[in-house]
Structures
1.
Amino acid sequence: MWGPAGVGLPKHVTSAARIGVLTPFVAPSTMSIPGPIIGIEATSGQPFTFDPWGAVQSKHAASPGVVAFGLQGTGKSFCVKTAMLREIGWGRQVIVSSDPKGEWVPLAQALDGQIVAVGPGSCNVINPLDEGTRPLDVDPATWRGLVATRRSLALESICTTLRPGRVLDEFERTVLDRAVEAIDAGDVEATVTGVVDWLTNPATALREDLGDAGAEAPTALRLVLGRLVRGPLAGMFDTNSTVTLDPVAPFTVIDTSAIAGAAPELRAIAQAATSAWIDATLRSEDGRWRCVVSEEGWDELRNRAQAQAMDERLRMTSQWRCSNWLIFHELADITQFGEAGSAHRNQVKGIITKSAIKILYKQSAASMALLDEIVRPTAAETDLLASLPQGVGVWHIGEAIPVLVAPVIGQSAFALINTSAGRVG
């Protein structure tokens, strides 16, 4: 089997009581978690089996949400790719919400999956206001309400992304609510272009409700959303979708590599639009079990409205049969989400906390204080996380004793997912 070149654990002198997390005769057997083999327990050499829903069924975790932290080059992406390959063999489906480096595309190609390219020249249009498919056990009236809520959130996310640092005021929220109502009534096409056209000549009743104080709100929103209809952002998220997510594809990748070097706002819009599109599929509740991977977790949460949508996805994991996998670099990067104690940062921390399964790779000194606050590792783990060798991670599965895991994979698959060649020469 191929994988990290040896475990090579750093020397550490301590008592067996303190370092129980690393002691084979103290650490519990992970074979009690139903699932495919992901790798080996680095301290015992036993196979490590895991499936997020298996962790819930065996009562190790309260939810199937997963977060993975680690410095660049430590092996976290290798770990998640290995897990996703094994999950497909276990009967799960995988959706990668954004692949900015094109690293997941070879996996999808090898597994006859679906690749949806986003960006200039792709000819694909993704409509963030797509209705999706109504589940059979949801009545039409309830479904209309759910769709309206999702569309309102998608429009808010797009607007706040295009106007960073500025939230919608009460007049603008009223305008978007009326736009969603007009879509529901069939008076407006359920696309960004349809909303922009409607905002060009808003209804008299809306203008009267806004009064003089809010008279400029429709024009302001038309100019903001109009950037998706005209200019460099046009043609990607403004009209009806030209492609649909294949519900039976084992592996689906949203390839965003074409916009990897684009302006941050374009990447953020792509994140918001594709996330809303994927959620429309998850809401169909078609009985399939899906792992949804966010390769750039911080980018996925940079927008507060999008963080709210992610929070909803985590809360609906049982109903939607979705295991969310967020990949992060430095935990210290959480400081970019407003001041300590701000609503946005607290929401991001809440998303991390609600993810009952945490995979930790080597961390910098700057991240350790936050790690203690959010993850609450043992003293031995704290010492270890600063010096973990490449390819070895600490798995926290609910309240169970953490386990050191080294993912392993076959030679042919290793060639598809190894991303270290460009760093090591």
2.
Amino acid sequence: MSANMTPSERRGAYNRANARAIAETAQILRTVAQHDSHTDPFRGDLGKAQASVLDAVSRHVATLPREITTEALAVVTAVDRLTGNRRTTGS
């Protein structure tokens, strides 16, 4: 299917997939932060702040410098490794 896509369509699909992965990771961090806040309020606040940053990145993936998206995706990879989540590319 991706063979029939124009470069612009492929870039758009790539950006949407990245945005989705980053947003899902933000939700995971938010859930963990909520649990952490019961035992360590500062750790909970840190997790909520990290989730907020990732949410902002996920909403602007297409317009951010590539370096920012790359670093956000490194967080996605780290959280996926920690949780045992395996992402598929959908192809």
3.
Amino acid sequence: MTSERTPSTPYGHVCWVYDDPAALDRAAQRFLTAGLAAGERLWYVAAGRAEPVVARLSAAPALRDALAHGSLEVVSLGDTYRTGAVVDGPAQVRAYAAATEDALAGGHRGLRVVAEATPLVRTPAQLDAFSRYEHLIDRYMRDRPFRAMCAYDRREVGGRAATELACLHPETNAAETPFQLYAHDAAGHRVGLTGELDESTEDLFGTALERADLRPVDGRLVLEASRLRFVDHRALLRLREYARQRDAAVVLRSPRAAAARLTALLDLPGLTVEVAR
């Protein structure tokens, strides 16, 4: 079950944090079965041997048939990503874009992937690069028929790393994720923001903003925050500084008038809160 902090319309980019591999199996089966019903090509990117994954997926009759007919493939993590290395985010997006176009050319309506990504985030450098990639691929998904479930074993990556990854997805099962920052368009200047921003999230929010690396369009960055439940002065100051570093204005669209009043009180040039009704 995904977190309550998901968009009202599913984006199809899910961070699945697990402690129990059986729970991942069930989630992956549901995710892939939905793609099968949508007419998409399906991949399961396995961190280990393919045979055990095939056996587990075959427990679902529809997926067993898909494996037999070739619309579902179990592929090696090493054939899809550079395991043991720091991911090249733009190159990885291009690889999935090519695979998506190939799926479309083959008569499918898109590409849907479950990826066991734990081995790709073991070191701090890997985690930083892969988190940046997660936002890049999220942008790509906004206007192309690619869907993905990114699976991370909390027992191996640790709670902090899992949260750093989950907060850059529009959908997650990790209920402890305090906020989510995700692409709202392919250009990279509009993002969605949900959850709560307070003293406990100050460092995490700063890290997420840096990794998202938002790009101004016409001198503006826009945060669509209709589902943001709380924002404190620290987060507003962080946004003002983020705007200054990028020589841009930041617009925070939120239904909470308190955020607008606080911004006016703090006198934060470069940051505007638009109260959306």
4.
Amino acid sequence: MYERLLSTHQLVALQETKFSEEDSLQTNQHYIHVADSGARSFWSNTTSPVFNGKRGVVLVLSSASPFRDVVDRTEHVYKTQLRNRYLLLEAKLGDRQIFLHVVYAPVEPARRGEFFRSLPTRFDFGAAEDFEDGCGPMHLAVGDFNTTMDNFLDQTSPSLPQPGTGREELCDWLDALGLIDAWRYVNPETRELTSPLRVHRIDYCFLTVDLLQNHLAKVNHVKDRKWHKEDHVPVEFKLQATFLPKMKRAPWRCPT
């Protein structure tokens, strides 16, 4: 699986790793490095060393990834509600600061609001830089948010808004970071569903406006390929890093 993924993608985010023992994590790290000796992997279990066969997220950057100076910042924003459900990485993309978020929100509606309220909105880790263009950091958030964003387009059975299911809190977090649903931006009236039973769209790639408008080349739901035993429809996107020096390799893209 890792060889196929890392040969074509520079960023891979996975949810529900469900490790029951630390050896399983180490085994997966080994397989990743066999597939790509220069790959870097970041695991939620590093900050939350709980191996109970539940939850877990990982972000893997291939050796071709354009991200530099990557630092795992998860421990700085850790809260109990985020245990093995969230990763936060700080990196450089060209001369810009970027934060990478991987999210696996609770399935239970009553728990989602508290989870989304626990996600960070401040990113002053003492290493922020003043960039020549005066722009703030970019954000890229991917994962299984277990929340629909539209009562008609994102679910098979249209319904009235249901308070207390986490959507309002998720929207507050997205607004705080300036994040936009990339797939819906490109497909404003399309209904495609990604959940295991294909009744909801709950898997997302959220981008800040500068990434979305200036660098998004493609975003789609992958229906014609499978990499392992995934039951969700992966989200794949392609960014053209026009602010980076020209490279011979293909632009990077990512399934989640």
